[in-house]
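Chain A, query sequence.
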Amino acid sequence: MLTRLTTLSRRTKQLILLWLDILLVPASLLVSMAVSSSTIPFLQEIRAELPAMILLSIAAGFISVSLGLPRVQLKSYELSALGRSAALGGMLAGMLAMMVLLGQSNVEAGTPVILALIYSVFSATSRLVLLQILLALYRKNVDETRVLIYGAGKTGIQLAMALKSTEDVRLLGFLDDNSVLHGMTVAGQTVYPAQRIEALIQSQNVDKVLLAMPSLSQPRQAQIARRVAKMKVEVQTLPSFAQLIGQEEIVDKLAPVLPNQVLGRKHLKDALDGGCTAYRGRSVMITGAGGSIGSEICRQILSCKPERLVLLELTEFALFSIDRELRALAEDTGTEIVPILGSVTDARLVDATIRAQGVQVILHAAAYKHVPMVEKNPLAGISNNVFGTQIVAMAALENKIERFVLVSTDKAVRPLGVMGATKRMAELIVGDCARRSKDTVFAMVRFGNVLGSSGSVVPIFYDQVSRGGPVTVTDPEVTRYFMTIQEACRLVLWAGTLSEGGEIFVLDMGKPVKIVDLARQVIEAAGYSVQDKDNPDGDIEVITTGLREGEKLHEELTVSPRLSQTAHPKLSCAREELLTEFEIIRALQALRGAVEVGEADAAVGEMMHWLKRDLDNNLRLAESLAQR
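Chain A, predicted structure.
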């Protein structure tokens, strides 16, 4: 019977609240009479006051409607609504006082004042009781999410107040680093020391931890998020306090730290655990260590306990940031952190670093990767992605290091643009080194689009949504493979461990995702509706801008449809045809000549000429394999 309350229409609920305001009048009047006379009213006294009760009840109904009290939702009943209830009680008290003066009522002189107080208390209390009953009924019918709020400051309190009226969320308390707050009760919840988080998660069966510390630095928030995520609990964050006072509800501002829901498949981070054999106790160099991919590789490789981690990075601030973060993370591992400021195109620096630091493994993540930027600056892209790779790979070959892993991209398959072409040239260089090497194991990994990396599409969509739209996609049919930054970096680590030389490793990423569907998902996840022909009154529109130069509708992981299974069930590898050693030398000589004289069109044309020959070779191989 009670569960039917949750399905009542809004109009029915308003009628119930109106009748509540009316029926509280006789109850309040009887209690007021008892308080003022200090005795329970006799039956004849109640009968004598019956006309006053009826008149006041009718008046309460009209006044309640005029004040809008029935329209105030129970979960929104707060100070302003309490003032309306007090105003209603005051008006009823005034009417009763007038009746006493006119001889229409025989109640004690102080009864009207008591009536005003009693009615206000009864009105507020009855609504709070009804709210708790409704919340209990809602929670009985839905799966409850048990949450802790990390941060008991102003933002955390605002969030806690918002969650109180959320039917499917149960707030279990606060966590905070400030020892002054420990043990205190804030917004009705206990504040626990942050050190107890693991015990609380286990004992309270916590589902989510909500980070409500926007004033904290991003690296510190990231450290807390990683720490909590390791406990198999979902982490969400409030990006800024300013969003708490925006137009949307507070709870709608929560954004997942890791955008795993856009993958369209199960996240493989746990399935990719391990792969440390090639790095434990080694001196490992990561190029591009300050970038989004390079920095995450650094963090993950620390769990493998290398002897030394050499960070080669061109951007000073990026190197400063990752060096400072890793030194804090490496305190318990004994790993030496060595920051090297410089470019992979500096052959002298690369060679000297490898020799001085005794580098045994190189993970080459340094590259210009943004398609529009490389398209507009082809000479820079060729210098960094092609010749930078050649310098690092040749240094690895000459110094006879143990392993070299190139971070590549699915855009290297049948490349249409400069960025993809430079990455395929880098693959050809590494493949040629693998073919010639007797001491160094060379391998490559191909990523899909990495969620969470700098410039990736999801943050761009979120930024467009935060500015009110529109959200832009290049073509409604564009699809892409997606992987999280954790999956991508684990793929690199496994490639270095499993490689025997010359393989191109790819991750089982399921089916490609339509970018337009992803855009709609981001809009809806932010609490908005999509504006389209079926919903012209929607909040945010998705518009198409046309394919950019060098961009494809659909990406591929390999030219050949056949992939070889590796020792890891989620990793496959391809062996593709390479240009001959002589062809690669000719191609690089021609490219270098064009770059040195600043002939961008000639350099791109030369690169595409040799890559067409490379593609023809691999298409013939694919046809041959298909006929077997």
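The first strand starts at residue 145 and ends at 150. The two ends are 70 Å apart (CA to CA).
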